[in-house]
Design brief:
Order of helices and strands: EEHHHEHEHEHEH
Radius of gyration: 27 Å
Distance between the termini: 36 Å
Oligomer: single chain
């Protein structure tokens, strides 16, 4: 039986591709994909100065003998005020590798969860000839889905994006930028027809070329 999703602002329903929205849930794959998505968003620019980088003399704090004080080395050591940081962060990449097939399967699993619980709807992006926030808010209210809501739109659906982006707890994202973490973190999902087509293409099974050598 084909999975259907309501069309916002209308009484009709849209068929969702079973190959994409009928995937069983794979917890480990979804977990790895979410970790990779979130790690890729980290800037990785945190940096601290080591004892070799602080602007401080390398001379001993005081002479070794004759003062009756404990011996001391440079003041740049980590346990002294103004000294360098031991084992502090340095700029680095946080990206994690997830295979393409695994990422596609994780995206299908995340989309299928929304389809199974009825928290996905389809939006006719062409219906917005100009920005109309009141019209968009009314369509979402009539649907009555939980929030936060993730709205995925095509690159040419600018009027629809402007209509939805100012609504509380609604995030508007281009379809080609939607990741597994975005889908998992949303309580409900709204896809325009263009976004639905794009996500179906991205999440679909990878078929091997007939001319590919094995």
């Amino acid at each position: 039986m084909a999975t259907k999703a309501p069309v916002l602002g209308k009484q009709s329903k849209e068929d969702l591709p079973e190959a994409v929205f009928g995937e069983p849930f794979h917890e480990s794959l979804v977990h790895d994909a979410v970790r990779a998505d979130l790690a890729a968003r980290r800037r990785g620019t945190a940096s601290t100065l080591t004892r070799a980088e602080v602007r401080m003399t390398t001379a001993k704090a005081w002479r070794q003998k004759g003062l009756g004080r404990a011996r001391a080395g440079p003041l740049s050591v980590p346990h002294r005020r103004g000294g360098g940081v031991a084992f502090g962060p340095k700029p680095r990449r946080h990206t994690l590798k997830v295979n393409r097939k695994a990422r596609r399967r994780a995206l299908r699993a995340a989309l299928s969860v929304h389809a199974a619980r009825g928290s996905v709807a389809v939006l006719d992006g062409a219906a917005f000839k100009e920005p109309a926030t009141k019209q968009a808010a009314k369509a979402l209210e009539s649907w009555g889905a939980a929030r936060p809501t993730l709205v995925a739109l095509g690159e040419d659906e600018l009027a629809a994006a402007k209509s939805l982006r100012n609504i509380e707890r609604v995030s508007v994202v281009p379809a080609d930028a939607v990741g597994v973490a975005d889908v998992v973190g949303a309580a409900s999902l709204v896809l325009s027809r263009a976004a639905l087509e794009d996500l179906t293409r991205r999440a679909g099974e990878v078929t091997a070329s007939p001319n590919r050598k094995r």
